[in-house]
Please model this.
Amino acid sequence: MAETLPPQIHVFVRDWLSANNILLKSRDGHVLIDSGYKTHAPLTLALLASGRGLGGEPLATLVNTHLHSDHIGGNAAVRDVYGCTIVFPDSEAPIIRRWDTKALLLDYADQEADRFDIDQTLHVGTSQVWGDLEWQMLASPGHDMGALVFYNPEHRILVSGDALWENGYGFVMPASLDPDALPAARDTLDMIASLDVRFVIPGHGEVFTDIGAALDRAYRRTAAFEADETRVARHALKALLTFTLLHRRRMALADLPSYVDRVGIFRDFNAAVLRMTPTALAAMLVDELQRAGVVRRDGADLVPAG
Ligand SMILES: [Zn+2]
Model:
């Protein structure tokens, strides 16, 4: 018999521009985890309003796993419609409150999100009841140093954000820029491996149950990153360029050298780790993404392959 999540959990599987939206329903108030990317807010609102979503009922609370734009980009729009309380990991709340666009990877990474206020914060080591289920707040630094994952021991469910996907996890900072990031990512995998988990609801991709295989892949990736910092930087910049391409739909190939020279995170990773000319960096990113089948050339432009 297929294993299924408790019926009050509804997962809207999105894509790589918008994180998954997880709706936890309860008579005590419905809770949404993560709101997707800003430009996808109309679709997020439509899914929420649908019969599989709230179906006209109010949303009490919006929670975020971490502060990246693909998770918080719909917060302002969701709050405008539902007037819900916004609850955020406490270690990241100051960054949101001062709207630090570099730490949020907004203009620094050529991404967008509308500003919003936080009403309550989540503390590591405490529990919250969402959807009539008790969730433990667990620190999951690495990809994002203040991120949380949410764990329900009763049904052995992990809401993993970008700390663990079925195939990998969210990019991490190279050691030259943050020496704590990759060791923290490994520690977070160890923490997750210590949990008894039957279902993982990741920030991106389908719900999965074979957490052992996912951890094996994540540990292999971590070992490869630990052996070669340039791999960390290349992986991150490929993920960031793919994200921008999903956001913009197309980019002129001729503009890419000036793009990687102008956008802060590309410039900083290149200066600290890769040390290539902007033209060589742009060519390498396009070549590797093309060979991975993620992007393709369309005339003079680069477009998503999908
Ligand atoms: Zn993230």
About this structure: The chain has a mean pLDDT of 97. The CA atoms of residues 250 and 303 lie 5 Å apart. The pocket of zinc ion is lined by residues 66, 68, 143-144, 162, 170 (CB under 6 Å).
